[in-house]
Amino acid sequence: SALAGDATTGEIYEAYMPDLSVPIASTTKLMSYLIIMDAVSAGEISLDDMVVISEKVAALSLTDDGVIKLEEDQLCTVSELLYATLLASSNEAVLAIAEHIAGTEAAFVKRMNAKALSLGLSSDCVFYNCNGLPIFTDTVAATKIQNHMSAKDMFLLISNILSVYPQIKDITSTKEIKLPMLGYIVKNTN
Predict the structure, then answer these.
(1) Hey, which residues are catalytic here?
(2) Model pTM?
């Protein structure tokens, strides 16, 4: 599944199986960004809010999927966590923001799926978590559950983000930033 187009005009230049829904891994964080910025825009949270790191977030940070080591009850701003999310693809940072906004990841994911519907994304676009990590079931026939989206859905999502919250480019074009509350320096690999 692939699609190339102009996200500002909506013009599609080339497409190959654009409606095929595929696992999207960390590009999930783009939908999370949209939900986060909607919460900021609605006055529900502020980029300066202090986020308390939960036990779940701290535990994730210590796994192989962790990017930045975080400790339970550590305080970080939404802004620093957002930079860690978009530049370092920090699974724990986006989880911390999701919990801060919605109380639980499950409640945040409900917002993600509702937003997908409101944007007119396909019914095959589905989110199970805020970071894109695969979820392994404990059933007899263990399966791997993953967030899915088509190239066309991703194009529509990006087009929406760039029209509503173009400041994402300020974050994603940052070459390097020191995040003092996280004790981390992020270098952009783009």
Answers:
(1) 26, 29, 89
(2) 0.95
